[in-house]
Each structure stands twice: as C-alpha cells, then as structure tokens.
Predict the structure.
Amino acid sequence: MQTLTTMDLRKNLGHILDMVAETNESVTISRANKPLAVILSISEYEEKVQNKNRGQRLEALSGAMDTWRERNRTATKLVDVVKAVRESRDSR
C-alpha cells in the first residue's frame, strides 16, 4: 500500500485514481504523518465493504420476515400460494 500526503493527492489526483483503478492497490492519504483516509478501487470496496454489510442486511431481513410470518400466520394459513403466484403473473 502506497502512502501519499494530501499535497501529493492534490497535485496528482487524476494519476492516482488511474493507478488505483488499474492496479487495485490501495493508497493511504496522510497529513502531518497521520493517516487520514484510504483510496480503494471499486472492486476492492465492493469486496470488503459491501459484501460484509450484505450478510448483516440479509440476516436482519430474514429476522423481519420470520417476525412477519409469525404475526400473520392465521391470516395467511388459508392462502394457496401457487394459485396466488399464478394470478399475479396472469395479471401482468
């Protein structure tokens, strides 16, 4: 991982963005020898950030679906799911 100062970033932003996109190498931005931020390629961002959050979101959604199902069990008990799906498709 390469480290650059904020001044280097200002002077060479376009070149740095191209380098990150082409090499998938992260760049740390620092000021007064203290790291402030990291520039990641979009593929690395998706892999590390979005996929991590995806599992948490799916788990929360699954819990919400289970709660809804329990709360509406009596109302949905008599629904023929296959028939409802067919009717929904036919109405399109």
Notes: Residues 70 and 76 are 10 Å apart (CA to CA). The chain has a mean pLDDT of 90.
